[in-house]
Specification:
Growth Hormone, Chain: A; eight-stranded mixed sheet; 30 helices
């Protein structure tokens, strides 16, 4: 009877922690989105949020251990903690608005790159995140104590809870990305996660009542695996007399292992964003498969702990050696992934968005799961050794210390790999650091193994691991990666890679050179980000289009005080505005790699504008710059990368347009690039409708097959002025610009497709309230809809959009 009761208890707690893990992951995704809007989508902001989140979890582990050692009803306390998490998180949208108000108040007039802002971001982020993350960190020690009140054999309890929690988190990652946020929006998703916490709290309260009725029966009941819990006097001798070396090895595996596990996540997410795509869905798949691997590893570790003959230090060393081997062997696979995607792209059955997401999911699983299984198993084995290498009375305290040590290692891994190792060494070489670190952990643990024969075997495996890591590649095949297979499942021939740079902000930025036989053997230099085209120097093609983009706002604006360019690209827009005579130009570009490579290889287009007088270049998020600057602009130009890149859609949402409008002078003009290929007509209408919601006059030009939106609230600037056009064509300062464009400004003005009146007519044809088309920071319509159109034919989608637009223009 007692055995069945305890088994039911463990299953119920596992289910509660599964649901709690799903809710926690939803919060993590939501918190990251909200704070990115406040602090910007730079790596510094994103990784700071993650580090703060983990820091709260570490503090919570220490507090939870202290609580669990003192309370007599840990399940009741756990219920109250879950209830508190849900209640607090319901209020987070208001709190995020509050810290944005404080942030703007304190940071206005500061450069977005100012070092003091990092401290401010950490402080404000911690102000919101510490309470829920500390509460989340408290939960594991409480449930572990409830599962094993005597404090003996905590490893099995931790392994079970860890596997359940990470499985729930993996499910949370998938349903958040593919269903909940797209269907319900950010605020409703917050409420849904809070309801999950409430369900867990109510179930835990019921469970606490059951345990109170049962009384001491559970304290002497068989363990969760059905075996009998030994009284403290009967604890295995290998636990009570554990050598210090075993404890040291366990702590090294938890601390350094935590550092390596999050370092691996940073590196692998970076590499997967290059080879498998970087939409919001792709990142959801990466996170989910990472967590699935941890869950499988945790369960494997638990099953090993159930066996009485398991040599735990030896298996801990084996998991670390296996981690090094999987990372080392995986180094040969990265260059193969684009080839696979191109092959799959030729299969008609895999032409839909859904089927391609399945392919991406398989790719992410093949990459992520093998090493994370090793990490998950290692964590549970190390936790068991750490908590059993002391008296049972102090086991729960050691659990809290060990969990905190592991989490602080996680924080160090995020920061060191993200800001130092990956930019310095590149993703593939940085992954070798993970493999080498795992072998070092294995060597420390091997020294604590008591059986000589086992030590010799582990030594041989270590030697093999060292050999594999030494011979594994450290450089990616950039020519293959430049083909853009991760985006469209087809190969683009951009030529031979002549330079590249890697970073968290920029991903993989590549410059290629291609001999264009059709143009008298001229070479074309192309700039790519993660395989996605950003611009080239084809004088009779793309350059003319790029110059045309930049020329359009000048047709509507004769004021020349301040201009803002969001998205540097090849630098064409910034150069045109500089030559047009603006007294001050701000450039906001997320990736310093883009600016550096563009200035190095596209000087003929940009004239080194980022370093010219009157120009200030900011390596920051454009939205964040607008949030902090008190400057008022005559022109804001937005030519960022494709909207389906994760985070890019925030510059197409209504809140961004409200912010841009507040930073424009009353006579100001906003220009924004919008792709017409690989774009669903409904998404194009959403973009236009959202912009029109904040600007009274919106025009649409089509230049070089690309859409350019011009928006203003000044009726005098709603149409291109013939006098402005004539002045631009006569300006000697713009002679080189006209030569690059291959035509005059009057010709560029002829690219108008829809006037403001026609745009209104187009939107009036859309059935239903116009507001239902608007994309906001809450509904995130564009962020979750636009990646789906990448599976569409570029030609057919372009023709479909052009047909829709022409149906109004021809009336």
């Amino acid at each position: 009877m007692a055995a069945k009761l305890n088994l039911r208890l463990s299953r119920w707690m596992g289910l509660l922690f599964f649901i709690s893990g799903a809710a926690a992951l939803v919060y993590q995704v939501l918190f990251a989105k909200e704070l990115t809007l406040v602090f910007g989508s730079t790596a510094a902001a994103t990784l700071t949020v993650l580090a703060t989140f983990l820091g709260g979890m570490a503090i919570g582990s220490l507090i939870g251990a202290a609580l669990a050692a003192r309370v007599t009803r840990p399940v009741l306390v756990y219920a109250l903690v879950e209830l508190s998490i849900g209640a607090y998180c319901v209020a987070t949208p208001t709190l995020f608005s509050l810290i944005q108000w404080v942030y703007v108040g304190l940071a206005t007039n500061l450069s977005p790159e100012a070092s003091g802002l990092l401290v401010l971001r950490v402080a404000l982020g911690a102000g919101v995140l510490l309470v829920p993350t500390v509460l989340m960190g408290i939960t594991l020690p409480l449930l572990a104590q409830a599962l094993n009140p005597l404090g003996d054999g905590l490893g099995k309890a931790v392994a079970w809870l860890y596997a359940c929690n990470t499985t729930g988190a993996a499910l949370g990652a998938l349903i958040t990305s593919y269903a909940v946020i797209p269907l319900f929006g950010v605020r409703a998703t917050t409420i849904i996660a809070a309801i999950l916490n409430l369900i867990v709290a109510l179930a835990a309260l019921h469970l606490a009542k059951m345990l109170r009725v049962v009384g001491l029966a559970v304290r002497t009941a068989p363990a969760m695996d059905g075996s009998t819990l030994h009284p403290q006097a009967q604890v295995r001798s290998d636990v009570t007399s554990a050598r210090q070396g075993v404890l040291l090895g366990a702590l090294v595996a938890l601390g350094l292992g935590g550092f390596l596990s999050l370092g691996l996540e940073v590196v692998y997410v970076h590499l997967l964003s290059i080879v498998a795509g970087n939409s919001v869905y792709a990142f959801g798949l990466m996170l989910a498969t990472f967590l699935i691997g941890l869950a499988i590893g945790g369960e494997c570790g638990r099953r090993l702990l159930e066996r009485s003959d398991t040599d735990r230090p030896a298996w801990l060393a084996i998991t670390q050696i296996a981690l090094a081997l999987t990372v080392g062997l995986g180094a040969w696979g990265w260059d193969m992934i684009p080839v696979w995607l191109i092959h799959f792209g030729q299969i008609p059955a895999l032409a839909s968005f859904e089927s391609r997401e399945v392919v991406r999911g398989v790719v992410c699983a093949l990459v992520m799961i093998p090493p994370t299984v090793c990490i998950g198993a290692s964590y549970t084995l190390a936790m068991d050794l750490a908590t059993s290498s002391t008296s049972s009375r102090r086991g729960i305290t050691m659990l809290g210390l060990s969990a905190a040590l592991n989490t602080f290692g996680n924080i160090a891994g995020v920061l060191l790999f993200g800001f130092v190792l990956l930019p310095w060494m590149g993703g593939l070489a940085a992954s070798k650091i993970v493999a080498v670190g795992a072998l070092l952990v294995a060597a420390v643990v091997t020294a604590s193994v008591s059986v000589n024969k086992t030590r010799w075997g582990l030594g041989a495996a270590l030697a093999a691991g060292v050999g594999l890591v030494l011979v594994s590649p450290v450089r990616l095949d950039f020519d293959t990666l430049s083909k853009g297979a991760s985006v469209y499942f087809t190969a683009q021939n951009w030529g031979t890679v002549i330079d590249h740079a890697e970073s968290i902000d920029g991903g993989l930025t590549i410059v290629t050179r291609h001999s264009n036989n059709a143009s008298d053997g001229d070479t074309i230099t192309t700039l790519l980000t993660n395989g996605k085209f950003q611009g080239n120097d084809a004088k009779k093609g793309e350059v003319q289009a790029q110059i045309g983009f930049a020329a359009l706002p000048l047709l509507h604006q004769n004021l020349r005080a301040n201009a803002l360019v969001i998205g540097y690209g090849t630098g064409a827009t910034s150069r045109v505005l500089h030559d047009a005579g603006f007294l001050h130009i701000d450039i906001a570009e997320l990736s310093k790699d883009v600016v550096a490579l563009a200035d190095r290889y596209f000087f003929s287009i940009n004239d080194g504008v980022s370093h010219l007088p009157r120009v200030q270049t900011h390596i920051t998020d454009g939205r964040n710059l607008l949030l902090l600057t008190p400057r008022r602009y005559d022109v804001i130009s937005i030519e960022i990368t494709s909207i389906w890149f994760a985070g890019a859609a925030s510059l197409y949402n209504r809140e961004f347009y409200q912010l841009a409008r507040s930073r424009l002078r009353p006579e100001g003009v906003l220009q924004q690039w919008v792709q017409l290929h690989h774009m669903a007509s409904t998404d194009l209408l959403t973009i236009i409708a959202t912009l029109r919601a904040e600007f009274s006059y919106v025009s649409l030009y089509v230049v070089g097959g690309q859409g350019i939106l011009i928006a203003t609230n000044d009726g005098a600037r709603a149409q291109a002025s013939s006098s402005m056009t004539a002045a631009l064509d006569a300006s000697p300062q713009l002679r080189s610009v006209r030569e690059l464009a291959g035509r005059g400004f009057a010709s560029i003005a002829g690219d108008l497709l829809l006037s403001p009146t026609m745009v209104d007519a187009l939107l009036n044809r859309v059935s239903g309230p116009r507001g239902q088309w608007i994309s906001t920071d809450n509904n995130l319509k564009l962020e979750y809809n636009t990646p789906k159109a990448n599976a569409n034919s570029p030609d057919r989608s372009f023709q479909s959009n052009l047909k829709l637009l022409n149906s109004i223009a021809e009336q």
